[in-house]
Every structure is written in C-alpha cells, then in structure tokens.
Records
---
Amino acid sequence: MSRARHLQACAGWMLVLPALIRNCTWFGRVEKSFTASGRELLLTVDDGPDPRQTPQILDTLAKAQVRAVFFVIGKNVEAHPSLCRRMVEEGHSVQNHTFSHPSATFWAAGPRRAMEEIESCSVAIQKATGRMPLQFRAPVGMANPFVHLAAESCGLKMTGWSTTGHDGIAHDPGRVVHRIRQGATPGGIVLLHESHLRGMRPGERACTLSTLLNTLKGDGYIFTDRLDAGSA
Ligand SMILES: [Zn+2]
C-alpha cells in the first residue's frame, strides 16, 4: 500500500472508529453520569414500550416509588401510545431512541437518515404524550457526526450510560443484576431494557428490575427523581 493510500485508510478509520465505540464523545457531548448528592443513580429503560413487559415494569416502579427515564422507539410509541401516556402520568420521563431502532446500521447513517429517525421519534412521542423529548440515546450507543448534528438540531442532548447488564441480548436476571451492580457508582446512569426477547416470559423484565432495585437499595443506593440529571 502506498503512503498516500495508507494515510487515506487511517483517516477513514479515524472517522469510522469513534462511531463504533459506545457513548464515544469524539463527535460531541454524551452524558454518561451526573453530579450526585450521595449514593444516587439515574435509572433508564430502553426500547419500549412493549405490551408484554412495560405494564409490569411500570407496576414494579410504582410499588418501589422509583421514577425512570424511558428511551422509547417511535414505532413502538405509535403502536402503543397509551403505554407511553401511562409512563408520563406516573411521573416518568419519555425520551427519544430513534423511530425504528436500526441498531446494526445507525452508526453509518447519513445526515438525512439520522434526521428522519430522530425527528419522527420526537413527533411520535409528542403525539402520544403532548410532550417533546429533550434527550436522545443512540441505538447501542453508537453515533457518528451526522447523528450528533441531527440530535442537536432537534433540541436533544445525547445521553449515554455508565453501567449495564447487557440485557439487550442475554437476559438471565442474576447475571444482569450482577453486571450492573459491579459498574454502579454514585452519579451513575443505569441502562436496562424493556423489549420482549424470544424465549422470555411476559413480565420477566419486571422480575429483573425488581431484583435490581432491591439489590442496589441494599447497597445503599437511591434512584434520583431528577430525571433530567443525565442531560445536564
Ligand atoms: Zn436500544
């Protein structure tokens, strides 16, 4: 490979690589934690709403008196607007997680696609709840410069996370909770999922959530009510 081609390839990777790193801040700000007073955490729940999991998740949160930020998928909001309204009515925050959640390809989205995905999700949330979202989380946390620009022009701040149980794939509750617990620090943003995966029982996500809330409470953590803390 000639020197010029080598440099060209390096420059290409310099642009692509950060888009493949979760919550990467090379192209813009991404909040992954917040300034806590004491052992506070912020709970975020992604990929809903889903009628097989969301109602039980909301019941569990109500029972534990914990409020969460739901990063929802626009097409799910259009399919289940009443679940989205229930989130807001019960004191939770509903935020933007793209319209169709193209997790395999969104890191490579061009300006038009990035804007369409983000804008149409905000419209779906506004229609369902009467509120415009103020935060955006990229699918699997991967975002290129066009995504950062589109989010900014829609008035959205990018929110990441600091600890996750990787429950977007494996969903053994014990392992999910163990992983989140290991990564928990004061001011941390916890990522959980509420999507229904193959082989999962209805309401199974709520069991994981319940175990997580009890475990972290036992460790002396509380979940903050400042639901905009992750967009400061
Ligand atoms: Zn997601």
Note: The helical segments are 3-20, 54-64, 74-79, 81-89, 111-129, 145-153, 173-183, 204-218.
---
Amino acid sequence: MNIETVKEQLKNVNYAGLDRDIVSLGLIKDIKIEGETLFLELISNNESVFGSIEEQIRMLFKDDFKKIEVTFLASKQTSTNYGSTQAPNNRAPYAKHIIAITSGKGGVGKSTVSVNLAVSLAQMGFSVGLLDADVYGPNIPRMLGITQEKLQWGEDDKMIPSENYGIKVMSVGLTTPRSDTPLVWRSSVAVSALIQFLEDVNWGELDFLVIDMPPGTGDIQLTMAQELPITSSIIVTTPQQVSCDDVSRAIMMFRDIKVPIGGIVENMSTFIAPDTKKEYAIFGNGGAQNLCDTYDIKLLGKIPLTMDIRETSDAGRPAVATDDAIQKGYYREITKNLLLEMGLL
Ligand SMILES: Nc1ncnc2c1ncn2[C@@H]1O[C@H](COP(=O)(O)OP(=O)(O)OP(=O)(O)O)[C@@H](O)[C@H]1O
Ligand SMILES: [Mg+2]
C-alpha cells in the first residue's frame, strides 16, 4: 500500500456529526509510511471526534500495517485569537446588525420570538440570517418547517444555509442525521461548532443576523459576546417572579460583559381562552414592567399565551407568516419598537 492508496482509503473515514469524510474536509496534514508503520497527521480542534476518527482508521488499515500512529494537530484558525468582551472579535463582518435573543430562563419563548422577529424583518425588505445557537436544543428547524432539510456544502467548501420565509437559517439541527439525534458535546466543542457557523457558512451580505440563544448565562452566551460585536439584545421573560429573577441575572451579566440591551419582551403575559377570548393573568401581572423600571430598560412588547401561536409554531409556520392579523401584530410591534430603539426607524 502506498501513500496514494492510503489517501484514497481515508475517504471512507467519516467525521462524526457531519455527513462528510476527513479527506474532503481537508483534515489530512501528512501521511508517512515507514516499514510496517503508518503515520498520519490530522488537523482538528474538535476533541469529541478524535476517538471515532482514530477507531475508523485503525479498522480500515488493520490488515495493512502492523502499527498505526494517528496524531491530531490543532488548526490555528479557531484555537487562537479568541476575543474578549471588552474588545470582541467580529466573526460576522458580513452582517450590519447582530441581534441576540436571550433570557436567563428556559422555555419562555426565545426561539418563537427569534423566528418571528427574523421573518418580520425580512417582510420589511431586510436581508436576514437566523443562527440557532441552541446547540443542545435546536428548535429553529421545526419552527420554520425545515426539519427534513440536510446540511449542504457549496463548491467553495462553505456550508449553504437553508432558506424559508425569506430568511437564511443555520442550525445544528440541520447537521444531525435525525431530529432526535442527541448531541453529547462538551461546551468547548459546541462553541467551536458555533464559530464555524459564523465563519464557514455562506451567509452573503446581511442587514441583520438574528441569534437564538440557548437558555441560561453560560459558555455560549459568553462566547457570542466575545466573538461578535452584538448590536442589540432582546431579553425574553414571562411575568412570574422566578422568571424575572433569572432574567435579572442575565441583565447583570450582559451589563458586565457590555452587551447592549435593546429591550425586554414579556411573553405569555396573559392567557387568552380560545373559546371565550377571556383573558387570564395566570403568571401574574407586571413582572416585565418591574424589570424594565428596575434596570431602566425599554419594554418592547407583550405577547399573550394563545393556542394559535403554539399551533402555528409547532406546524413550522411563524405567526407573522399567517393571515392572523392579531397574532402577527404582537411580533410586528416588537420588531418596530426594536428598530426605533436602535435608531433605524
Ligand atoms: N405566546 C405564546 N403562546 C403560546 N405558545 C407559545 C408562546 N410563546 C411560545 N410558545 C410555545 O412555548 C414553547 C416554548 O417556546 P420556545 O421554544 O420559543 O421557548 P425558548 O425560550 O426558546 O425555550 P428553550 O429555552 O428551550 O430554548 C413552544 O412550544 C412555543 O410554541
Ligand atoms: Mg429555544
């Protein structure tokens, strides 16, 4: 077996999580054969795939070489040069404005707000990209009706974002073989995947890059603040005290790391009964307004809990893309208020 045939064989080694082989991804740095030993040098920072790649290589050449030595070298591109929150990098120079949708808390409606804000901006004529930064719970593909889509690569070796409702979308959900494939990644791996989504996706020129953040105040939030000059962030909360407590922590974190806060959205403000249209304040009143008063932040809008929003969202149709003027109105109002706050309207 010579170097050429080894290289040919390596095309059978898959990179876990992506439907690509290690040769086409350009990971092979060096192949050497000395007597009955095969030496391979590969470039990757993603520790989580080392085991699977090495195992596949050993299986592949077990009958051809007595000894196989695989070395992983870090690529310079992502291992160095991380930014800081004081002087963030700009890994998305193609985007004029970067909007992060966050909350200290899970399940309060961040993804629903992100999707509707992004589609609403596109309906106003802006070019918009939506990045699903919720690596462990990527819900954006379902909410945009693109769960069946698979990651595509362009000729320039860049990923091609999916498109629907006039926006470009990238999500880890598009890279896994099935929507129920769990991702067991250390946070350093999740962070490098997101950096790749910023740098190696063909987003084109964007007026807005909207980022749907995962719940909490952890590594991913911090990385985004270090790697991107976030123009404005929207904080989503529900009215009850426990949600407002978590959101207070998120506000303090954002202030610490100098991410501008564009405003708060109160989601699930009241419940509107589908039959009687009667309104119930099941989570209490005034939670978000109190936060806005305490921290001197603008209330961008309130959205009630309605069956329609949940149904259209699960069905992959954002509220702003339906004919329902009332549901659309909530999100359009928030979009308008954000643009006003940013001085763009
Ligand atoms: N105003 C609303 N009325 C009815 N259902 C809603 C509303 N807002 C969100 N939902 C539903 O609540 C669920 C949670 O919303 P969503 O996924 O947007 O929250 P999240 O904050 O992104 O959650 P996570 O923290 O898990 O990412 C979804 O099923 C969504 O359809
Ligand atoms: Mg979400």
Note: The chain has a mean pLDDT of 90.
---
Amino acid sequence: MDLRDILRRRRMVRHYTGEAVPRETLERIVATVRRAPSAGFSQGQRLLVVDDPGLLTDLAALAGGPDDPDLEPWFPSAPAHVLVLTREGDYHDRYQSEDKLREGEEVEWPVPFWYVDAGATLMLVLLTAVDEGLSAGVYGVPVEQDAAFRALLGIPDDLRIVAGVTIGRGAPDPGWSGKTSRATQRRRSLDELVRWNTW
Ligand SMILES: Cc1cc2nc3c(=O)[nH]c(=O)nc-3n(C[C@H](O)[C@H](O)[C@H](O)COP(=O)(O)O)c2cc1C
C-alpha cells in the first residue's frame, strides 16, 4: 500500500471482528521496531505482544467496559494487544559511553527521548497494521491501573508502559466514532500547526 493511502486510512478503531490475527502478521508488525529511530541508537523501545486468549480476557476485565451502552466492545473484541514500553536505562547507558559524554558528563536531556522514541515506534506499529489490512486503536494505561497491568503481564520495574495498541480486523464502531475526541474536537488547520522559517 502506498504511504499516502496508509496515512489516509489510519484512524483509531475501537471495535474488531472476532477474527484472530495470524502470528506471522503480528510478527511483521512488531518487527518494525528494529527500523525505528532512537536517540544515539539507544534502542530503548520494547514491545510486548499479547495474543494469549486467557490474557486477552484478563486485560478486558482489567480495563472494564465503558458504561455507555452505545459503545461497541473495544477490548473484548481485540484479538491482540501490543504494549509499547520504554527502558530509560538504555539511554543513560548509551550516553554514558565514551563517544557520547560531554566533558565527562552525560548530556542534559532536552526532553525525555525515551518517550519520543516510543512514540515513533507506536506510529510504526499503527502504520504497519494498516498496511497489513488491519485496524488499530491506541490506549493509555491509567496510572491507577499501571500496577495491575505490570502484574498481569510480568512487566519488570525497569520498563515503563507508554501506551497500548489493540490490533485486529476492524468492525464498524459508530458509537465510538461519534463520541471520541476526533469527533468532538476541531481538526486544527495546517496554518495553526506549521509555520515556515520563523514562528
Ligand atoms: C498516546 C495516546 C494515547 C491515547 N489514549 C487513548 C485512550 O486511552 N482512549 C481512546 O479512546 N483513545 C486514545 N487515543 C486515541 C486518540 O484519541 C486519537 O488518536 C485522536 O482522537 C485522533 O483520532 P485518530 O487517531 O483516529 O485520527 C490515544 C492516542 C495517543 C496517541
């Protein structure tokens, strides 16, 4: 698929048919992590793929269903999740190596690049899912649920959960499409978002 087509098609889909996603397809989607950019090639991104039916059920139970009866089932219909994780320690390790030290010190980070790189990786997962003819939806793990996600999925302390992505064959989600931020918020004009030469 042409990149422009992929970008046009990409939107968060929060409802899936019951169809399973083949392992090989998921493998191709998550293999893109190796093509993601990372500061100093620190490669702090990690992806955790959840396709075990028992764990998927547990994740759906953890997230709880929306109270709104007009919303299609999101987690209960998702045949796979990819959790985007980051290991901040990889960045400190890398930037404490000889070729990266500045006057013997680790650089002062302008922004936490471990989250920047996780975002770039998240985008690769979304675009590759679309390229595979699938749909995907991003969710944040609420702070109060972080410990439960970690315990369920055995995520160690040195990895931070940045976001989760549900992946599957898209089913109609008119309920969600009508009420999510994309529907309620005006899309900003290009002029608001992009300027040239000086701000
Ligand atoms: C980091 C991140 C976290 C998000 N968390 C949620 C979420 O918890 N629940 C949800 O319904 N959508 C979530 N979204 C999806 C956004 O609402 C969505 O990207 C935005 O409304 C634009 O819609 P589109 O991606 O379909 O173009 C998240 C997106 C990102 C990038």
Note: The chain has a mean pLDDT of 96.
---
Amino acid sequence: MDVKTFEAFSMRDALKAVKTQFGTDAVILNTREKKMEGSKGKVYEVTAAKNSQASVKGASRSQDTSHLKDNLVEMVEYFKTIERSIKSLSEDMARRQDLFRLDAGLHELRTIVYEEMARSKGSLIEGMNPGLSKIFQRLKMMGLDEAEMSKLGEFLKVLPFEKSSDTEQLFQHYQTQAVRWMMKRIKVAPPWNPVMGERAVHVLVGSSGSGKTSAAAKIAHHYKTDHKQRVLLVSFDNKRIAAREQLRVTAKVLGMAYESVERPRDLLEILNKKKDWDLVVVDSAAECPRAKDDLGDLLDFRDIDLPVSFHLTLAMTEKEVQMDRMIRGFSHLGLQSLIFNRLDESWSYGEIFNLSLRWSLPISFFGVGRSVPEDLERASRERVVERIFGL
Ligand SMILES: Nc1nc2c(ncn2[C@@H]2O[C@H](COP(=O)(O)OP(=O)(O)OP(=O)(O)O)[C@@H](O)[C@H]2O)c(=O)[nH]1
Ligand SMILES: [Mg+2]
C-alpha cells in the first residue's frame, strides 16, 4: 500500500493534495495540525494511503462507491474528535483562538464532505457522454424517480449512437428521445363530460388545504363555459366552519347553480327532483385516511344509484412521500384521477410523472394559481413534459 503524508496551510489544501496525487479513492489514515518551526503559524498534516483496489476512472468506478463510504466514515469519526475537542475547549477562555481555528477547520471539513457526497450522488451519471448527463441532471433536479431514470437510461442506451462532440447537439438529440419516451408513458384522464343524456357525479377528495374547494369551483366553471354543460356545484363539507358558505358565495359570483348536502344520499334526492343537470361537481371535507374506515361518509357515495367518480387533489408543495401516502389512503374509494394543485408554487414537477405512473392513475387537471376560475389547466402530456424539461 502506498502511504504518504501531505502538508499544507489548511486542511482543505492538504486533502486536495491527497486527492490530486492518490485520487478520490485514497484512504485517510491520520490528520493532525502542528506548529510551524520558527513561526506562529500552523500546518496541517494528512497521512493517506492510495487505494490499490480502486478501479481506473470510468464506467466501473461509477458503480462502486464503497471507497467513498469508507472515507466518509473516517471523516465522520474525525468530526467527532474535533467536536469533543471543541467541547473541552469551550470553557477555557484563554484558548479561544484555538477554538475558533478548530471550528473553522470543522466547517471546512463539513463542506468537503458534503461536496463529496453530492458528487457521489451524481456518480450514476458519471462516465456518460456530456449531452446525456445533462439530461439526467435536469431530470434529477426535477425530482424524477431513480427507477424511472434508469428505465429511460436503458431506452436511450439502445438508440443508435449519436456521433458528435458538441454537448449542446448531443443534449438536443437525447432530449428529443427522452421527451418521446416520457410522452408515451404519461396518462391523461378523459374529459369528465357525461355521455349524451346521462349524468355524471365527480367528487373531489383530498387532505386539508390541498385545493379541493378551489379546484371544484374552477372545474365546474370550465365545464359550464367551455363545454356548455349544465353543471351543479355541490358542497359536502360538514366539517369545516363556513366551508359551505365559501362555496355558496363562490358559486354565486361565478353564476353557477349550487346545493349543499349532509349525506351522499341527499344528492340522489336532489337530482331526482331537479332533472336539469348533466354534470355534478362535489367538494368534500378534508380527510387524512390511514385506513379504509377513516373515509367515513365518502364511502356511502358508492351505495347511491349514480355514476360517481372520485378525484384526488394534491398540493405540489407537499413532499412526494406525503402525496404518495394520500393516494394510498384514498385509493380505497377507487380513484379515477389525480388533480395537482399549486404548480405555480412548485419548483419540481417530476413528482407528477412518478406518482401517476406508480399508482397507474391518470392526471385530469392542474391548479396553477389562486384565482378562481382562471388558474386551471386541463392536464396534457405536453404540459407535463414541458414543465419537466423546462421547454
Ligand atoms: N398558489 C396556489 N394556491 C392555491 C391553488 N389552489 C388553491 N390554492 C389556495 O390554497 C388554499 C386552500 O385552498 P382550498 O381550495 O380552500 O383548499 P381545500 O382543500 O378546499 O381546503 P379545506 O377545505 O380547508 O381542506 C387557498 O388559500 C387557495 O387560494 C393553486 O393552484 N395555487
Ligand atoms: Mg375546502
């Protein structure tokens, strides 16, 4: 094993020297700081060993990150030693200078470790041609699932090789293919219009503040004005104070017909009396179902003699895992589609693709702002892809 001690005026430079000479696979054996002879300054010493097991820079290296983990474990141990030193020094005012120095060293090391971690995360795309790696970096930033990215990688790998050294040209070439691949996989829900002479009831469900009421009003208005449907807007929110009032006033402002119901079967009575509705859009109370029983009255919609569909509203400002749990909880109802709200407040859109594919649920609408009824978009493959690729 090739072992060597590197010296520098900062720990960062010493580690850089190790990296330059022994590569990122080097194993750190020891670190210390010592006084410079004949001066007040200090030098930092790092003893490192070259990792002879490490493979040459390239494809196989990108698969094996165990060497990195070893280094990171050692770094973490080193942090602990420094933290212990800081603790013992903190009560001794006379040694404050030492404390500051140690603190700065610790900060520097943390930065290096985080940089290294970020680099190792990107190791999947290491060794790819620059055009392709640019695509994957973008998709990663957009929150696209790792599993989906490897499927895309498999697809792009079998394409005829594009001979070009121009990164931008390669990027454009692979982007076109990636967009095609994605477009084929995105599922968009059919329009909600009922078949001629029939009726359809669409119930919006979701967690607290996910945008059910806003989306219900926007969608009802969309079908009334753009599709000339006879739309009835219904409130089935008996939980939140003034929830019904909120929708009643919104309906009035939008010139929409409005009713409120206490139980799902009340809706059947209303529709039996008033025959002149084609499309009924129902706003419901917030739920956070962990099990089927938590869905309460919503399940009763399935027992009434009407063609009822359930659509789940999700706020894009939530974490993907949270949205995933919501889909799981509401899936006992038999969901027809997903409605993604707050796209205007989100920075990544890969979650739309991930969740729709994972649960095999089509997307019906996007909420793109607070304004009712304007800030609504009917979901389309093009819009999803445009957002993910920033086209
Ligand atoms: N920026 C933005 N805000 C939205 C969007 N959709 C809804 N909101 C806002 O989010 C908040 C909650 O929206 P609601 O429609 O009341 O949500 P809800 O799911 O009905 O809420 P609860 O009935 O209390 O569970 C309101 O302030 C809306 O204006 C959207 O697409 N973009
Ligand atoms: Mg509401």
Note: Residues 54-63 have pLDDT under 50 and may be disordered.
